[in-house]
Every structure is written in structure tokens, then in C-alpha cells.
């Protein structure tokens, strides 16, 4: 079972996937890492793990559809069983998500359907929520709107800041994302048309 990981930044979730893929119990491997930014630290993590990396930056005036077509061509060349968006900070066009919907998952730092989009920790604090968390979901054309596969939650403390929450959120993500990928690789979670 082969996956491609899409990244834009620090790549701590990529690192968790690299480690899980190398565990003796692992049932998946990482074929390639694709970043839309050439300065993503995630690329260094992939290179250190001898995983092929590709950078596809958007050019000025390029349409979203055009970028997504180029991304799609790269993905097709790998014929992956699963594409994991691990901090990939681009919105994908409907034609892209329709093409890959059964093979495309994302990790998002909120308890969806609460707080799609950005600044989720700040928004949860401002709303006075006492629970917050993360979601792994299939990706459709609606931003952070596809079927939820798994979630994990944590308590928001009275003195919490977005930065403090981000640390705990990352710990949860590093556990949950590899678990979900393993479960999909083992066939324990299957995409259904309703997703
Ligand atoms: C994670 O918090 C993820 O939920 C969000 O972007 C962040 C990526 O972090 N989509 P990292 O690059 O994996 O460290």
C-alpha cells in the first residue's frame, strides 16, 4: 500500500508517517512527498528519509485548475493507493477533488464540522468551547467538508493560548494520522460512494 504525502510546511505529521511506515508492523510505504513551497522543512525530513521529493510552486496568474492539473499529473505517475494532505495549505478545485476523492484524505485541527478553515484554536477559545481537537476526513470540493473518518479531542484549559493548544493538537495528530493510514491500508476503513 503506497501513499503520497502533500505538504507545505513544518512536516511534523509527515515525520509521524515516516516513522509509522518504518515500524516493523507497518503495512504502507511513502512513495513521494510533494510540496507547493520550496522552503518547506517537510522536504528536508523527506530527503533525510530517502523519500523522493517534488516541489510544485504556483506561478503568477496561474489558475487553480491549471495548478491542480499539474499536481494531478504527478500523482498519476505514482498511481498511489492514498494521498495524504498533511499540512498542505492549498484549496483544491472541484475537478481535482472529484478525480481523487476516493483516495484523498486531510488532517484538520478542529472537531469538524466546527471551524473549517484557518485559526481554529483561536476560534475555539473565543467561542468558549471546553473541548477541541482534530479530524481526519475524506476531501471533497467543500473546504474541510468531506466525510469524517476519525477524530480525537482534548480539553481547553482556562489559561490556554492558541500556541499551547497547537502543541497538544500536534501530539494528537501524530498519533491519529498514522493510525488512520494504517487502517485504510489494512482495508479496515473503506471509501464508500456516500463519502
Ligand atoms: C497540522 O496542524 C494540520 O492539522 C494542519 O496543518 C498542520 C501541519 O503541521 N492541516 P505539520 O506541517 O505536519 O507540522
TrEMBL record:
What the entry lists under SUPFAM superfamilies is as follows: Formyltransferase
Keywords in alphabetical order: Purine biosynthesis, Transferase
Q: In which pathway does it act?
A: Purine metabolism; IMP biosynthesis via de novo pathway; N(2)-formyl-N(1)-(5-phospho-D-ribosyl)glycinamide from N(1)-(5-phospho-D-ribosyl)glycinamide (10-formyl THF route): step 1/1
Reaction equation(s) it catalyzes: N(1)-(5-phospho-beta-D-ribosyl)glycinamide + (6R)-10-formyltetrahydrofolate = N(2)-formyl-N(1)-(5-phospho-beta-D-ribosyl)glycinamide + (6S)-5,6,7,8-tetrahydrofolate + H(+)
Q: List the GO terms this entry assigns under cellular component, sorted alphabetically.
A: cytosol
Give residues annotated as binding (6R)-10-formyltetrahydrofolate.
Answer: 64, 89-92, 106
Binding residue positions for N(1)-(5-phospho-beta-D-ribosyl)glycinamide: 11-13
Q: Where is each Formyl transferase N-terminal domain found?
A: 2-181
Any one Gene Ontology MF annotation carried by this entry is: phosphoribosylglycinamide formyltransferase activity
The protein depicted here goes by the name: Phosphoribosylglycinamide formyltransferase
**Species:** Thiomicrospira cyclica (strain DSM 14477 / JCM 11371 / ALM1)
Amino acid at each position: 500500500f503506497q501513499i503520497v504525502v502533500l505538504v507545505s510546511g513544518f512536516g511534523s505529521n509527515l515525520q509521524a508517517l515516516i516513522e509509522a511506515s518504518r515500524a516493523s508492523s507497518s503495512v504502507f510505504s511513502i512513495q513521494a512527498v510533494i510540496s507547493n513551497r520550496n522552503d518547506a522543512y517537510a522536504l528536508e525530513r523527506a530527503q533525510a528519509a530517502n523519500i523522493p521529493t517534488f516541489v510544485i510552486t504556483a506561478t503568477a496568474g496561474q489558475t487553480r485548475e491549471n495548478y491542480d492539473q499539474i499536481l494531478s499529473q504527478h500523482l498519476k505517475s505514482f498511481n498511489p493507493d492514498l494521498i495524504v494532505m498533511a499540512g498542505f495549505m492549498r484549496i483544491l478545485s472541484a475537478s481535482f477533488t472529484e478525480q481523487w476523492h476516493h483516495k484523498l484524505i486531510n488532517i484538520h485541527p478542529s472537531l469538524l464540522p466546527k471551524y473549517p478553515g484557518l485559526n481554529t484554536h483561536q476560534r475555539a477559545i473565543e467561542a468558549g468551547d471546553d473541548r477541541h481537537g482534530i479530524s481526519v476526513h475524506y476531501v471533497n470540493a467543500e473546504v474541510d467538508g468531506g466525510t469524517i473518518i476519525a477524530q480525537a479531542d482534548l480539553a481547553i484549559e482556562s489559561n490556554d493560548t492558541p500556541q499551547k493548544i497547537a502543541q497538544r493538537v500536534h501530539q494528537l495528530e501524530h498519533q491519529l494520522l498514522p493510525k488512520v493510514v494504517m487502517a485504510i491500508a489494512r482495508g479496515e476503513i473503506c471509501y464508500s460512494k456516500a463519502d
